[in-house]
Amino acid sequence: MTVCVLHVAAEMYPLLKTGGLADVVGALPPAQSQLGTDARVILPAFPAVLAGLSGVEPVADLGHAFGIGDVRLERGVLEPHGVVVYVVRADVFYDRPGNPYLDASHHPYADSDRRFALLSWAAARVATGADAGWTPHVVHAHDWHAGLAPAYLRAFERASGRPRVPSVMTVHNLAYQGVFPAAHYGVLQLPPDFYAVEGLEFYGHVSFLKAGLYYAERITTVSPTYAREIQTQHHGAGLHGLLQTRSHDISGILNGVDYSIWNPSTDTTIDTRYTAAKPAGKAKCKTALQARMGLEQNDGALLFGVVSRLTEQKGLDLLLSAIPDIVQRGGQLAVLGTGDPALETGMKNAAAAHPGAVAVELGFDETLSHSIIAGSDIVMVPSRFEPCGLTQLYALAYGSLPLVHRVGGLADTVVDSSLENLADERATGFVFETFDRAGIVAAIRRAFALKARRTEWKAVTRRAMEQNFGWEAAALQYDAVYRGLLA
Ligand code: ADP
Ligand code: GLC
């Protein structure tokens, strides 16, 4: 039987991206199609989404909802893989300057509860027949933006008496929960009794993520280690109690890499292409990156790269404290990121203090992100917590050794260059245990030490490039989750 699944999400690469969620929603459906699953996606009709789809056509008039009129369901196709994408047309909600979550002056939109409730409600409408030609067997909700979809499926079931389509809730990041004032509950078009501890109430508020975690039949998250961590008080962000009660329904499925986009042998955005067998082009990428970022042209300088949202999660305050330890040893640092003003200022100050050795570019730049991943010797991901993390996987593919904190998906994907792991031919990067200056500095020192041993450095970079984190493994595991639901 062909399983039909509808992914519900706020972003999808290459249509619209602010982080790893988009990469996943862009890559998982084509990987699922390869396995014979009919995977479609529903997104809000943001202008960039509409602009990137071909053959957009009307599907259904959804009428009046959440205080706005003229809500329409449309359907288009995303090439090159031909993924069918439904869009929710509601220009009052989605046709705005700014990104999906923040307005042009970086403030959260005041009506995001209604904006994302509409997305989930429209997904539940598709699951109950809004498209006469296609109905999913499973609804797959991603992050809090889609958290209400499982709740609407239950509500529609109760109202119609027809059995609901089951749903899967994937947590990409438990830190973002979509929590809104209880006073707004009335506009969500949900039964009054859903606002309860056994429901979507969360400390006197409405929590979209809790709705998904409570009402979905299965819960997944994006790495095995994070699946365990979120059931602990330390990493559970207030939801560990609920997650513990659902322990048997939770699985950790590691994200993959889309090697059609992140592959140094075919990447047309980098200076020179290269492979594990013929790595010479990597040195040219490094020279080009140094020139692009205004770093001193020096082949021998160990170049550390960062491509990241600048938020508390990513641990870059710890990196700031360790910059002298990089620079004093003759190393360089290239940073691309955007986010918290305090971290942006910290990065700018570091660049000003170490001209030629530290370079920072504030902003979101897809091409530069590839240049940094390719041109760096080391890619740093010192996150406080990390559900999966994709940049360390991209770094491995480009033979740029990841330097990471041993947490979440970072712990599942990078093997430290300890003497034991070098001897066992397992090392692929640098991993530190304790989130403090001593921890990260020791890892930085191991990086310099390994670089000084040419043969071993070569062996580790080669092993890094040979790792396979393709999407097929994840697609197979999601397939098993869906089939478990339908059995
Ligand atoms: P998260 O989703 O928490 O931000 P991930 O590592 O899963 O972390 O994914 C981040 C994605 O966003 C990667 O594709 C990374 O290259 C990209 N990215 C992050 N910041 C930037 C930036 N400033 N410019 C371009 N790409 C960025
Ligand atoms: C989130 C997480 C990140 C993960 C990404 C995609 O944004 O912070 O660790 O890789 O989602 O699942």
TrEMBL record:
Protein name: Glycogen synthase
HAMAP family cross-referenced by the UniProt entry: Glycogen_synth
Gene that produces this protein: glgA
InterPro entries, A to Z: Glyco_trans_1 (IPR001296), GS/SS (IPR011835), Starch_synth_cat_dom (IPR013534)
One Pfam family linked to the record: Glycos_transf_1
Keyword Glycosyltransferase: yes
Keywords tagged on the record: Glycogen biosynthesis, Glycosyltransferase, Transferase
Gene Ontology molecular-function annotations: alpha-1,4-glucan glucosyltransferase (ADP-glucose donor) activity; alpha-1,4-glucan glucosyltransferase (UDP-glucose donor) activity
